[in-house]
Amino acid sequence: MTGIVLVVVIIAAIVIGVGGYYYVYIPSLGKAVPNPDTIVMTEFGDVQTLDPMWNYESAGGEITERVYEHLFWYDGEKTDVSPQLAEKWEVSSDGTVWTFHLKKGVKFHDGTDFNAQAVKFSIDSMILLNDPEGPAWILAQIIKGGMRYMTSNTYGVTNQTEVDAYLAEEGVKVIDDYTVQITLDYAFTPFLASLQYVPRIISPTFVEQHGGFKPGFRNEYIHEHTCGTGPYTVVEWKPGERLVMERFDGYWGEKGKVKRVIINYVNEWGTRLLSFFAGECDSVMVNAANAFDLIEKDPWIKNQQIVTLKKGYVFRADPSNNIISGFLNPHIKPFDNIKVRLGFQYAFSWKTFIDQVYNGFAEQPTGLIPKGILGHDESLPKYTYDREKAKQLLLDAKNEGAFEDGQKITIYYNAGNENRRLGCLLLKDNIEALNVGLKIDVQELDWPSYLAKFRNHELPFAIIGWIPDYADPDNYIATYAHSEKGYYSQAIQYKNATIDELIDEAAVETDNTKRVEYYRKIQMELIRQAFYFFMSQPMNLHAERDWVRGNYYNQMLSVSGNGNLTYWTVWKEQYTDQVAIQVSTYVLVTKNR
Amino acid sequence: MKMRDYIIRRLLLLIPVLIGISMVTFTLSHMIGDPVAAYLPGGAVTRIREQQIQQIIKAHHLDEPIYVQYWYYVNDIMHGDWGISRSDHDRPVVVSIQNYFPATFELTLVAIIVSLVMGIPIGIISATKKDKPADHATRLFSLTGISIPIFWFALLLQYTFFYQLKINKLPYLPLEGRVDDFVMISHPLKTVTGFYILDSIITGNWPVLISSLSHIILPGFALAYATLALITRMMRSSMLEVLRQDYITLAKSKGLSERVVIYKHALKNAMIPTVTVTGIAFGGLLAGAVLTETVFAWPGMGRWATGAILTDDIGAIMGFTLLIAVVYIVANLIVDLIYAALDPRIKLG
Predict the structure, then answer these.
(1) Which of A593, A589, A568, A542 is CA-nearest to residue A73?
(2) Ranges in chain A, pLDDT < 70
(3) What is the full DSSP assignment across B289-305?
(4) ipTM exceeds 0.90
(5) Taking each helix axis from N to C terminus, what angle separates A512-529 and A473-481, rounded to the nearest 10 degrees?
């Protein structure tokens, strides 16, 4: 009998729980727009840190990008340099000394004034922290004294000699309260563009009051708490669970429209989808793999037209700034032979890759610089799928002795990376279907082993990707082609003195027409050499409820990189069912932009 | 042996067990590929410069022999430094455990209570009504519980009790999380133990109590179902066996009522196998609530541990393994003590 009593108790508890919940929260069900003064976004992934000197990934960038502000930023949808906390600026004739006049009357969230000291503090502490995972290198590589500090052993220890040496160089100098001067080691045209990303300017008083700054060490308090000059401020962060922001009423510019922003971190797509359909959240993060749970498949695949499956929401696909590529390592046989590399380029079925891996939400890029960024050139040649040509090239290479009949090549991907797995399998199919006596083995590796092979230059083929730090072609080109600055060029040990020279010249050149010409030359050479595959420029997918107003898309913002809302401009508006029906179909126009 | 001595001896046995486990996990996680990977997230790797990698190697003694590294590790553990959880934003492992353990423990506790409170009576009914419709129904029920994939069941619960109810404007259960965001913002909960239900009772925060109770129902039941089914089957078979014993026949022949025979005489003996299963299931639930936690966005240890394993986050893997080992041993100790209480013939020692 006790058992039955317990069952009754449990059932009663459930009834009270449900009933209580319903009783307390029922009022919110009746309204047309749920919680009109709060924006709720449901995302996957997780913020790594809120520390503006350490954060270097998109989930945290979504917060630090707008809670903190920069000297320069983006004006609406445009990707060009637009002043934010800087008002006017001058540059010396040799391009190395930059003087910035700052906005007056700007307040930090703690009520202190924004001024030149805050700019100096934010740049210097980012460089002096020298976090291996952080963005410090972007400025450290060009600001006077930065390079030396970055390359000496300064993370995890305070190397006072090096700190003093850096500060003595006076790379960042306060002229007066609202004027700051930055001296570079050499002229660098993308400098202003890089200031759109770092420094994110933090209140020095706030840091001082909460443990202060120690060179080489992160501050645990700043990791979790923010104090910038932006329109919103973080009030709560429970990692992996939620982040809550509130409007900063003392903001100098256009104030936020809603009082509060909640970001919920939900990794499971099914759960996110139900939450979105039920109106619990206003926007939801979508992967290409899940897109057809929101829109109809056929109209998209056939006509690139978006037809939503249900009423009440809007779905958009916009080009991202992300370039997914692959490399053939020219230092591993048989890829030292250019005919083999060309054969692989012509054998790869580019369209299948995009249709299968991205459900068609991507484009085969033309060159390395994506659409929407200076230097993108539609007239550059693209490799296309051409079986006969590929076969001929590979047979010629075989006759030259590039590889033996029946030779096996093993290519790898890291476990869990579905796109890389599909890419490798597709390449295997494409090559083996040619019957030229080449066999491809695809092997999965755990992440540490994959990384070890990558660092030791042992991967013959790898799929890689690049999301730029700032809106400048240099950020793409140097990464792939510069023998000293480039991450991927070093991975495949690519060295070309002429190319290095061109990249360096392009970085100093101030005339955009000339820069575009330089970048065209470099890209032509990369395409001719055929060791990079430019595989896709994926689209950003975005879904929001139709009561959301005022959202915009900027290709360079990591917030849009996540396909989410520009929370500082959006608001919610009462809607009627008729309106909801009208917006239910949204025809994509961005494809031809 | 006295009960106190027995408990102390069992707890002392923890030490060699923990040394063994830490050695195995430490060696395994340090022998795979490039140990630097443990300190680099997948996304950030492309941005890391060579000299920065050298700094990581130096800071974590990665250039020294493995036994020296292990010695550094043990030394740190002794000083209360369990290392840094790389996959959890470089938090100290101790802090990660503080953050995630209560959520999982609360969920597991609810699941185990649900499965015991429902499983034992259902098992008894099934046994006493053997081969009757009630028995067939419970057997089908437990068969479903064992064979249904937990993530699918969880999605089904969400779809029915959240989505369908909500869009039809009926009372519904919340979709995900431990507590409603808006309730948490309007009635902030002061953390005492980290268990929301307990904390809200202690601090008298009734809106949070109601919200967290309603949030735990679906994940609690989803997690409980498989164990519930197991306990039902266990209870049924052991009850059937006990009911065949002579002393039951004797009790019946004495003219005792069916209720007294089952609940006074048979239940205690039939409980022993169930208690064993519960002890094992508890450890399993605690370590294996991953799927339920993922579907319900429950901020527990499952997600943390999976993330740690996928990114070879050594600090977190070690911390998690050690913690689970301790919990497992303690749970089984409690099971042994319950044995003694149920059956005085069982000697401790």
Answers:
(1) A568
(2) 1-7, 9-10, 13-31, 558-563, 575-593
(3) THHHHHHTT--SHHHHH
(4) no
(5) 30
Give the 3-state DSSP-derived string for A308-330, with helices as H, strands as E and coil as C. ECCCCEEEEEEECCCEEEEEECC
Q: Which two tokens stand for residue A165?
A: 């040496």
Contact B46 A29 (CB under 8 A): no
User: Minimum mean pLDDT among A265-269, A447-451, B279-283, B333-337: which range?
Assistant: A447-451
Pairing verdict, β A97-102 and A86-91: antiparallel
* C-beta atoms of A240 and B299 within 8 A: yes
pLDDT tens digits for range A510-559 = 888 999 999 999 999 999 999 999 999 999 898 999 899 999 988 888 66
- CB-nearest to A18 from B33, B58, B171 is B171
Q: At what angle do helices B14-31 and B66-78 cross, to 10 degrees?
A: 140
pLDDT of residue A300: 92
Tell me which chain B residue has its CA closest to the CA of residue A31: B169
How many angstroms separate the first and last alpha carbons of chain B? 6
> Which of A79-83, B112-116, B341-345 is predicted with the least confidence, judged by mean pLDDT?
B341-345
Rounded distance between C-alpha atoms, residue A520 and residue A1, angstroms:
84
- Judging contacts by C-beta atoms under 8 Å, the chain A residues touching residue B99 are 239
Contacts of A264 in chain B (CB under 8 A): 176-177, 181, 297
Chain B residue at shortest CA distance from A452: B34
pTM score: 0.84
Contact partners, residue A401, CB within 8 Å, separation at least 6: none
Q: What is the mean pLDDT of chain A?
A: 87
DSSP string for residues in B74-111:
HHHHHTT---EEGGGTTEEHHHHHHHHHHHHHHHHHHH
For residue B154, give the nearest of B180, B175, B139, B171 by alpha carbon: B175
Distances from the Cα of A279 to the Cα of A160, A313, A547, B146, B180, angstroms: 55, 10, 10, 34, 14
Single-letter code of the amino acid located at A356: Q
Q: Which residues contact B212 (CB under 8 A, 6 or more apart)?
A: B178, B179, B196, B197, B200
pLDDT digits (tens, 9 = 90+) for A405-424: 999 999 998 877 888 899 99
Distance of CA B340 to the CA centre of its chain: 24
Query: Could you tell me the two tokens for A576?
Result: 């009627």
Helix, strand or coil for residue B347? coil
Using a CB-CB distance cutoff of 8 angstroms, which residues of chain A are in contact with residue B181?
A: 40, 242, 244, 262, 264
Residue B250: count other Cβ atoms within 10 Å of its Cβ. Answer: 12
Phi then psi for residue A205, to 5 deg, are -60, -40
Q: Are A232 and A247 a contacting pair, CB within 8 Å?
A: yes
